[in-house]
Write the structure tokens for this entry.
Amino acid sequence: MQIVPKGEKAFQIINAKGHSPIVLVCEHASNHIPASLKRLGLKPEDLERHIAYDIGAFGVARGLSKLLDAPLIAQRYSRLIYDCNRSPEQPGAMPEKSEIFAIPGNRKLSPKARMDRISQISRPFHRAIEDFLDARAAALRPTALVSIHSFTRIYHGKSRTVDLGLLCDWDTRLARGANWNFPGFSTQENQPYGPADGVMHLMNLHGATRGLHHLMIEIGNDLIENQSQQQQWAKRLAKPLKAATKALGG
Amino acid sequence: MQIVPKGEKAFQIINAKGHSPIVLVCEHASNHIPASLKRLGLKPEDLERHIAYDIGAFGVARGLSKLLDAPLIAQRYSRLIYDCNRSPEQPGAMPEKSEIFAIPGNRKLSPKARMDRISQISRPFHRAIEDFLDARAAALRPTALVSIHSFTRIYHGKSRTVDLGLLCDWDTRLARGANWNFPGFSTQENQPYGPADGVMHLMNLHGATRGLHHLMIEIGNDLIENQSQQQQWAKRLAKPLKAATKALGG
């Protein structure tokens, strides 16, 4: 099945020639589901929820790309088709249920249907990141890999108190290399979830395996609902990102 | 520069339809250096040394592929052009010096020359593994990833006493899931080197990031110099490999 129309790409690269040592990634940038997949059986309003994409994350990532002069590689399709922060072996890659929402269009997918999603949505995106990082390695350019995410305030009925989460696992170089505290907001490491929850797939695949400085940033999505809030958070985050990558040329 | 001739592949897949849950990998299978690279400035006899490939490893891997009915994905070019068990960021990927041997043809490579090697030798091999594992994941087939290596007995003038090394880092499921001891030989975990030496790149890239059972097997190359020794070791290793993957259908 053709999910991504021929001639189109599953990903986009913004500011590819940016001079920053930081390469930004946004795997949950979009809630787009092509007509052929019939909204995966969901109601139109469900596609506006956090289950379909990371609300506000792409806006923050674009803002950072400009402020830092950093390349940004973003996925153009909804995480509900394939969650690019999961390996194909993880049930969450093509979830039959996301949080409390059943995803009818993901039920009992055939091997062929699963492979279509892997090969059209996930792999081209990951290979774009890989090619991009390979070219920098070949040119001996230092790289810090940073992904921008948002989380929902209420999850499974429970409220989360963290505002800014720095997911880093063992690589604390960026997370502890600058001051990430902002008055009135709570910054926490490996919250509201962490490595044990299997959410660091992209960071492990592209960051850890290359020994790159890497960090996954999670922002409460109620804080970045509109463009001006997104821009404000981009400005906030640019400062510690620059400080933490100074030794790399940031 | 065209290193791999057009129409040829940097890798080969043997027994692709094998029924075993084990997928074998041999990244240092070959000492082949195409004429265009002028032996990287080395003498013909240098290409027979462990610096050019893992002596005997491909023979053991082929033997295991047959005995286990397991697919085997092998690199067709020498590790001296690009070491597929290193990320492009690691100096050892295209080493200017390997053990005590200077590699003249790897000195001061241009970004273009480095990228040629990454894109022609390393990536096609890794993407073949990735595609292969993706297809198995899509079909919900369990997989254990096992790479076959050999090491040189004398390294930097020191003799190594281990005969069989099981490199596993945190994933001890295969290494401790069977009896790997053979009378008269010394089996040791994470010897003669281990994760801290940066030698688990392929295992991390394809095994750990997918949550697959994975294991890197290292055999003293003086034990597998000829075909009959290679076959003998394949027979030896088939037993614990089958036992350790029983739960996966091995």
In short: The radius of gyration of chain A is 17 Å. The mean pLDDT of chain A is 97. The first helix of chain A runs from residue 57 to 68. Helices of chain A lie at 57-68, 111-138, 201-207, 227-244.
